[in-house]
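Incident log, support desk, overnight shift.

02:14 A customer reports that sequence design results differ from what the structure should imply. Their input is reproduced verbatim below. On-call engineer (initials T.W.) acknowledged and began investigating.
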């Protein structure tokens, strides 16, 4: 299997697949009434969202947004949200699909955004949660794995845009800038 220097496997392909099936089953059971939209937060959640939506037994619409809180290598403390073509969310049940919740700021701002533009309900799904850095209270409805305070890459997550293609989640142990 493909691997990378400076990355140690934390969650294997098999573990990811098993957990995503479990989350998809829970989502299917708890959201049976239709009008559900998965909003994939780019770029990191692209693989998680695509595997999760295919594993559900309910029909869901898919949308994408970009959220960034970093300018260069520094967090600005502000989250910029950009959508493509505006979609009408009135009456829609949104499930925000994220790669990782760290301080909680990004997820909090995204949820507030969808509440403001008229979504009927807003739920959250994240593959990973790092509680050690949590500063903002966010309710996570569907969480894949709670992880320790390590910088992780793979399965969509990056370090400087690298490693997104790895099929597992690994701890980045290489040089940082
Ligand atoms: P927040 O601090 O919860 O707002 O997280 C901000 C964003 O930082 C997340 O959506 C991720 O894209 C990114 N991030 C946080 N921790 C990691 C990590 O360990 N690896 C890769 N990206 C991360
Ligand atoms: Mg992200």
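02:41 Re-run completed on a clean worker. Output:
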């Amino acid at each position: 299997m493909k691997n990378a220097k400076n990355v140690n496997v934390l969650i294997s392909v098999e573990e990811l697949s098993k957990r995503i099936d479990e989350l998809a089953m829970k989502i299917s059971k708890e959201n049976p009434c239709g009008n559900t939209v998965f909003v994939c937060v780019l770029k990191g959640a692209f693989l998680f969202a695509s595997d999760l939506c295919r594993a559900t037994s309910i029909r869901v619409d898919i949308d994408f947004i970009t959220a960034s809180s970093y300018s260069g290598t520094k967090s600005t403390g502000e989250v910029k949200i950009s959508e493509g073509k505006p979609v009408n969310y009135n009456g829609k049940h949104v499930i925000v699909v994220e790669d990782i919740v760290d301080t909680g700021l990004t997820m909090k701002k995204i949820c507030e955004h969808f509440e403001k533009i008229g979504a009927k309900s807003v739920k959250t799904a994240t593959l990973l949660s790092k509680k050690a850095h949590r500063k903002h209270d966010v309710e996570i409805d569907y969480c894949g794995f709670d992880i320790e305070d390590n910088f992780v890459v793979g399965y969509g997550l990056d370090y400087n845009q690298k490693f997104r293609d790895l099929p597992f989640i690994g701890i980045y142990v290489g040089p940082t800038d």
